[in-house]
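Researcher: I'd like a structural prediction for the single chain below. Treat it as a standalone chain; there are no partners to consider.
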Amino acid sequence: MIRDAADWDGRTSVTLTVTADGASASAHLGMRQAPVLTQLNTDPVQEVLRAATDEDDTYTEAFVRELDAALPDGGVTSPSRALDTKGDTWAQDIFEPGYVAIPGPDGRPHGMRVLITSANDDRRVAARTAFTELAGHDVAAVHITHVPDVNENSSYDSMGNLETVPPSPGNPHGRVVIGGDGLAPGKTGPAPEMLAFLRAQGMQDPISLDTSWLTIGHVDEFVQFLPVPGSRLGWRAVVADPRAGLALLRDVQKKGHGGELLHGGLPKLEWPYDLRIDQRTVDAFLADTQFTGTNERAAERIDTNLAVLRAKAGLTDAEIIRVPALFTARSLDYGMLDTEIRGMEDGPAKDAKQKQLEAMRDAVAEIPGTANGLVLNDGRYVAPKPYGPVVDGKDVFAEAITAAFRRTGYRVSYVDDLIGVHVGEGEIHCATNTLRGVFGPGARWWRDR
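Model: Treating it as a single chain, here is the predicted structure.
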């Protein structure tokens, strides 16, 4: 397996020389290591993976029940498979499914899966499940060794920060997208060894996106790819749209419903979830300049990333499904700093901390993020229940999201991930992983080398 093209480019040659009766003849054969390719969302789902639940975790058990109930409609006949992740919720982050293939009978692809484990935290414990539970017949796992720098943001090495744009002209196997520090000072990453590994495969040249504006910093927080047969490229991108989210709130306010809670229809929340879910009104959110500023900044950064995808991955406006989204700076980091400030005595030190709190703009999802969902088969998509403002008995965000997908021929199933997943600063995509049918015609990389 090629890990770094600077050490070995995956190519070698074999020469066979035969000498008989004083004469010699030679034959030369050039050989190439089959590249590791990452799976595409345009490949059909065969199995959905997730973390095992604790027996007393009623919230996550309810989430799993709703998730499993949504799978059959999307062509997945088996319930989600639980992995022993040692308490790590984020099944998406621990490995990225890939594969290697060679020509089989009649040129059909034949190969094996390769699970690329996260370099996060220099051997994330949960990632070992790729070796202990999944590796076996026709399934391999590979770890890319990386020793984190003391100043780096290791979250960039979680695999929810690595996605693959489906094929486009000039990119027959798609291109990996991976988030990183952009121009943000003090946020280094992702691991250079992982980038070297991805580039060394020579087929899905990685595209770097700026995710430094996010608290967690993963590309799956704002973009997702799904198959759309018959469209120009055969796929489209689901993209979070904070401007549309703010416009929905202003429309609610304009129609005289600004006094409604932004998160309508909430269940009874116990501590600490009653503190983690911001239960202010639409009017209060729109009057909060930190909130609106966070979303305006998020919209600008998403625009910048879309410009990169247009330039490097064949994306056009026709391939973009914009879904309303709302972000907040009130992350877990915000909550910890706020708690610290409350315990301080009045004075210059407290004032400085308060200014730091008010200046925070790095974003996490306020409305559970639609782009951070699960692509199934047969035009089905599983999205987190948005818990938007309820007007005339309808969630205005769910109505807008459903309409956006319907225009692309998709039907959305909403799953409640509010407690245990969303409050942990992730969504459905973060909490699941998939094994897809990768050995179709698109796996014939040798035709495009």
